[in-house]
Amino acid sequence: MTASPHAAHLAQLNVATLRHPLDDPRMAPFVEMLDPVNAAADGAPGFVWRLMEEGAADATGLRPAGEDVIVNLTVWETQEALWDFTYRSGHLEVMRRRREWFERHVEAHLVLWWVPAGHLPTVGEALERLADLRVHGPSPRAFTFASSYTAAEGVQHLQAVPPAQPEQAARSARPAPGGGAAAV
Q1: pLDDT digits (tens, 9 = 90+) for 122-141
Q2: Would residue 3 count as lying in a domain?
């Protein structure tokens, strides 16, 4: 995790339902993009952390939301940094081709929320924020790019999230090498 002058960071979770297993030849173009896109995220300005499966270079083996659902959980210094990586980098190619590899979503699949700088969100915390967004709609507790809230507006929700203890963070995820981030 990289050091940051910001008191709060932006956490994001997105989930995607696979059309085919990752080892299916139809998924090969997506799988081939994982390492380059993750490396780009790792070096992106404002990136703080990403979830990775123990012993792996990404989180595609983790299936906390269902056997056919992959998760992406990252933390960024600012919403602008996440936006720039998502829509102004090589990650955009993955977004353009997502219908080849993932089912169309019928409910919210992306959630953003503010966390205290230094806090590494757990998958459970992230899935709870997504559930909150799905049930209650956007709020300072759980929002989207289209319905965003500032860190100042989210301050009241920061106190509800205690900073992760080192052993808790190690169990829930491990930091990306070199302080990197991933969007896939």
Answers
A1: 999 999 999 999 999 999 99
A2: no
Cβ pair 51, 127 in contact under 8 A? no
Is the predicted pLDDT of residue 46 greater than 90, yes or no? yes
The answer to whether the beta carbons of residues 10 and 79 sit under 8 Å apart is yes
Report the number of distinct structural domains present in the chain.
Answer: 1
**Strands 69-76, 8-17: parallel, antiparallel or unpaired by DSSP?**
antiparallel
Length of the chain: 184
Helix, strand, coil proportions of the chain in percent (round to 5)?
A: 40, 20, 45
Domain that holds residue 165: 8-176
Give 22-67 as a DSSP string.
Answer: TTSGGGHHHHHHHHHHHHHHHTSTTEEEE---TTSSSSTT--TT-T
Q: Look up the pTM and report it.
A: 0.82
pLDDT digits (tens, 9 = 90+) for 48-99: 999 999 999 999 999 999 999 999 999 999 999 999 999 888 787 888 889 9
Whole-angstrom CA distances from 155 to 7, 13, 39, 40, 81 are 10, 19, 31, 30, 20
Task: Please identify which residue in the block is written with the tokens 């002058």.
Answer: 5
